[in-house]
Amino acid sequence: MFAARLTDVAANRLAQQWGARYIGASDKDRRAMVGSLAQASAALEPRQDQGLRFFRRLYAQADNLRLLVDLRADLLRWRKQVSGLTVLEHELEGLLSSWFDVGMLELRPINWDSPASLLEKLIQYEAVHEIHSWEELRHRVAEDRRCYAFFHPRMSDVPLIFVEVAFAPQMAGNVQLLLDPHVPSDPPQKARWAIFYSISNTQPGLRGISFGNFLLKRVIDELLRELPRLKSFATLSPIPGFADWLGKQDGKALHALLHDKTERQQAQDDPEAGAKWVQRLRDAAAGQASDTVQRNGLRLALHYLKSMKNGQPLDPVARFHLGNGARIERLNWGADCSAKGMAQSCGIMANYLYELDQLDDNLAQLAEGKPKLGLNLRWL
């Protein structure tokens, strides 16, 4: 299957059988099958384009793009355990990048009138704020909300990435209020703000293939076409890496970050200072928090969001939005007091603001290692 010409009948028959077997295989059998691929791949000399030939043959014979997406997800999952998978994974990534070029993707709205099978996929793939019931789902796709997704013509029943949008008179700062179906909302036609409160990638096999950064810009264009009175576009976003990062900081690292002199002195020589602050922030978010604790918590979160590694923000959500040209506009205390929100970020959430005429300038500043901040964050 690697070495034969693409017109070789016997090799193509084998590829068809291999693909059918892989689709129905258990995890254990799939791992054995990709292990065999790795062994065959390692024996190719010279390699040239024989790895690409295998994947093209498999796609041509299976006529199933989902097979290739699932196969790459498995290669990513097992590449550290099975020698030789990394080369195959990189070759398949290159093919999928061309097959999932953003110019081939279709932006479609999803609402309560969409097919039930598609609505079920929103429940299945929602990665930010879990959907617990059909009632919650109905609220997310109601007439006063919007939901958009990218689809590929060869996987037309599966949203590749989707965004959920709420409308508000001002920038939102509490996700529980946005998610509560009993909280009344203004008609979209009167709204000035569009709030992107959940963005979910659905296919692990497309990780690293960048089309998400085109999604929000396309959605903004759609919203402005439908609702020209909209003036501002912002997210209400989780900070998924904050608590884990803070828990690893010692007192020396936190000394310069804490606002209060007494707090700095207490933390200075404590190797567990970061872990203690994580618990302190969680306790404060769940109860009554003093201004000092809140300010320290927001100050620590902002430092984390500004932190860079290899030229990119540490936090994956910050990396996505700042990489799209947004700026960090505001931090919100006690904005997500769900179990997940408390575990990830001690209840703190961020607003990223998309100002269309500022995106390129913000990207240029990010390239210099200085993420753009809103004016109201300077007091921190």
- What is the CA–CA distance across the termini? 60 Å
Task: Give the number of DSSP strands.
Answer: 9
Mean pLDDT score = 94
Low-confidence stretches: none
Work out the helicity level. Answer: 40-55%
Order of strands across the main sheet: 1-2-3-4-5-9-8
Overall shape: it is globular
Radius of gyration: 24 Å
Order of SSEs: HHHHHEHHEEHEHEHHHHHEEHEHEH
- Quickly give the structural class: alpha+beta
Largest sheet: 7 strands, mixed
Strand fraction equals: 5-15%
Task: Describe it.
By secondary structure, the chain is an alpha+beta fold. Helix content is 48%, strand content 12%. The strands form two sheets. A seven-stranded mixed sheet has the order 1-2-3-4-5-9-8, with helices on one face. Strands 6-7 form a two-stranded antiparallel sheet. Helix 1 packs across helix 3, helix 3 crosses helix 5 and helix 4 packs antiparallel against helix 5. The model has no long low-confidence stretch (mean pLDDT 94).
Structural descriptors:
380 residues, alpha+beta, seven-stranded mixed beta sheet, two-stranded antiparallel sheet, 17 helices, 48% helix
List the helices and strands and how they pair.
Layout: H1 9-24, H2 27-42, H3 50-62, H4 65-78, H5 85-99, E1 106-109, H6 116-125, H7 134-140, E2 146-151, E3 161-168, H8 175-179, E4 193-201, H9 212-226, E5 232-235, H10 242-247, H11 251-255, H12 261-267, H13 273-286, H14 291-306, E6 308-309, E7 312-313, H15 316-323, E8 327-332, H16 339-345, E9 349-354, H17 359-367
Parallel strand pairs: 4-5
Antiparallel strand pairs: 1-2, 2-3, 3-4, 5-9, 6-7, 8-9
